[in-house]
Design brief:
Blueprint: E1 2-8, E2 13-19, H1 22-25, H2 29-41, E3 47-50, H3 54-58, H4 69-72, E4 76-79, H5 80-91, H6 128-136, H7 146-161, H8 166-181
Parallel strand pairs: 3-4
Antiparallel strand pairs: 1-2
The protein binds zinc ion.
């Protein structure tokens, strides 16, 4: 098992890289530490943000005995991927030249010709690297690595939770642009 968990706190964030191998670790104290770790993070007082359905993502790992599928559903979960699409489509509306202009801003359609809306079907789900690239104009490949995926989920979760408008997003991007030019 190989997973990354970002522990988001008020003033700092910690990314834990968890590696576990039954053959090697089952009878070690490390097993008990991990078992406790999962008991803590799946507590009902915690909120877990994921890209995709948490249960679907973790069910393959239940076989290691570190947690049960029923433990996973104790925590409050937010599927950021599911919440991203309506937020994004509301901010990045169809262009005036697009056939969908002013008709169905929230819907991804095969009739849409906007290049800022890469998905043309309502059943398509955004990939994390595309979501970050199209929202923040940040590099794709950077977010292919797991640590950066954790940070990306938190960043996108934040702007959705805070209901960022296009003005707020543009002001943020402008600030980042100036920072890059004058580090
Ligand atoms: Zn369009």
């Amino acid at each position: 098992m190989f997973i990354h968990v970002e522990l988001v706190q008020d003033s700092q964030t910690i990314i834990a890289l968890i590696e576990y191998c039954t053959e090697r670790d089952r009878n070690s104290s490390y097993y008990h530490i991990l078992h406790n770790f999962f008991t803590i993070i799946f507590d009902s007082s915690k909120t877990i943000q994921t890209w995709g359905n948490l249960l679907d993502l973790l069910v393959p790992y239940a076989q290691y005995g570190l947690f049960a599928s029923s433990d996973v559903s104790q925590a409050q979960t937010i599927n950021v991927q599911k919440r991203f699409k309506p937020w994004y489509n509301n901010i990045f509306r169809h262009d005036i030249q697009c056939q969908q202009y002013r008709k169905y801003d929230e819907i991804d359609s095969s009739l849409c010709t906007c290049c800022h809306r890469p998905y043309k079907s309502s059943s398509c789900q955004w990939s994390i690297s595309k979501a970050i690239a199209y929202t923040f104009d940040e590099r794709y490949d950077y977010y292919m690595h797991d640590i950066h995926k954790c940070l990306a989920i938190t960043k996108l979760g934040h702007v959705i939770n805070e209901k960022w408008t296009s003005q707020k997003l543009n002001a943020y991007k402008q600030k980042q642009f100036i920072k890059k030019k004058n580090p």
